[in-house]
Design brief:
Elements: H1 2-19, H2 23-30, H3 38-41, H4 50-56, H5 74-81, H6 114-117, E1 126-128, H7 129-134, E2 137-140, H8 156-160, H9 169-175, H10 183-196, E3 203-208, H11 211-222, E4 226-229, E5 232-233, E6 240-244, E7 250-252, E8 258-263, E9 271-276, E10 279-288, E11 293-301, H12 312-317, E12 326-329, E13 335-340
Antiparallel strand pairs: 1-12, 2-6, 3-9, 4-13, 5-11, 6-10, 7-10, 8-9, 8-13, 10-11, 11-12
Length: 341
């Protein structure tokens, strides 16, 4: 009986050691055969963050995470207004940067707003699966990042020590040194509210506050043999026409074995990760009007019957819920699709 006990103790030591590893090493430890995409590597902390750890122990002291969440600057307003990862702003004019209200997240069970309903159909990232397979031209914008949100991951022990709940909003704002009543405060509240929305039928979601937590969620849904994918381009581009090169479109992974993670607006990296039934993932090469190339990741939902009938995708594509698969491209940098390998 000694051998099993020793083995158990060794496994416990290894597991405990893994829990204390830096985020990038934790990835390598539990996902040794899964390359880390650029969307993740650019959000790794630049250092072990000893100052952040010290600051975290003092309420109201700057944590050293992303700045600029108080009122008073145009860049701060633009960052918040044009950065919702669950809604794809196909035209910047659709977002009022002077608005006092933050845009609502784009959920499957949300109807299109009055402003969204009058958006230009040629500029949406939503399209039909048949368009993907046969090639089509759409007006898309692939900037360095849709949200310009460069917030980085916190190590799990730090992230776990900060509450992430609407019941603790005042404490969170104080901890992150964000002025109560500011746009930054409303952004924090909005993000937490999104994460607390009830799942639609067939959806399993979790807002992860660290890279380690994201990895654990992925493993719980897909196992360890996984691949992380993100949209990549060879340069930063303005809003323009892109054509899907249908000959290069390739289906990736197993159908219905997909988890997509969207980066949220928050002072440090928080991702909305969700697994939905009946989902496909494709790699889709795009060619821009200026000759630029984008290696895009497309996610197709084959069952939209549970979506809100007034969802913007139905309006822009002129289809009804549950009739045809609806696809969308993942914006660059801040979104990751996970598939079983």
């Amino acid at each position: 009986m000694e051998f099993p006990i020793i083995t158990f103790l060794l496994l416990m030591i290894v597991a405990t050691s893994a829990e204390t590893l830096p985020p990038q090493l934790y990835w390598k430890f539990v996902l040794p055969n899964s390359p880390m995409p650029k969307a993740i590597t650019k959000m790794l902390p630049n250092s072990p963050m000893p100052k952040a750890i010290t600051n975290l122990l003092l309420p109201g002291v700057d944590l050293g995470v992303r700045k600029g969440y108080d009122d008073g600057g145009a860049s701060e307003v633009n960052t918040i207004e044009l950065s919702n990862p669950l809604f794809y702003h196909h035209d910047e004019s659709m977002a009022d940067v002077n608005s006092e209200e933050l845009p609502a997240p784009f959920h499957y069970n949300d109807a299109a707003s009055e402003t969204q309903s009058h958006g230009k159909p040629s500029g949406t990232v939503f399209f039909l699966e048949t368009d993907l397979l046969h090639g089509t031209t759409s007006s898309l914008k692939f900037s360095k990042t849709f949200s310009e949100n460069e917030a980085k991951f916190l190590p799990r022990d730090i992230a776990n020590s900060i509450p992430f709940s609407s019941n603790k909003l005042e404490y969170i704002l104080n901890k992150l040194n964000i002025k109560k009543g500011s746009k930054g405060a409303r952004m924090v509240q909005n993000t937490i509210s999104v994460c607390e929305v009830e799942n639609i039928k067939g959806e399993k979601k979790l807002c992860v506050t660290s890279l380690e937590s994201m990895i654990d969620f992925i493993i719980s849904k897909l196992g360890r043999n996984v691949v992380a994918l993100s949209t990549e381009g060879n340069k930063e581009n303005e809003f323009q026409h892109y054509q899907i090169i249908s000959q290069g479109v390739k289906k990736l992974g197993e159908e219905n074995k997909v988890v997509v993670c969207h980066k949220m607006n928050y002072p440090y990296a928080v991702f909305y990760c969700h697994e939905t039934d009946k989902t496909k993932v494709y790699s889709a090469p795009l060619k821009g009007a200026d000759g630029s190339r984008v290696k895009a990741i497309a996610v197709c939902h084959t069952d939209t019957s549970k979506w809100d009938p007034n969802h913007f995708a139905f309006q822009v594509l002129n289809v009804k819920p549950g009739t045809v698969p609806i696809c969308h491209l993942l914006p660059r940098d801040n979104n990751v699709a996970w598939i079983s390998n």
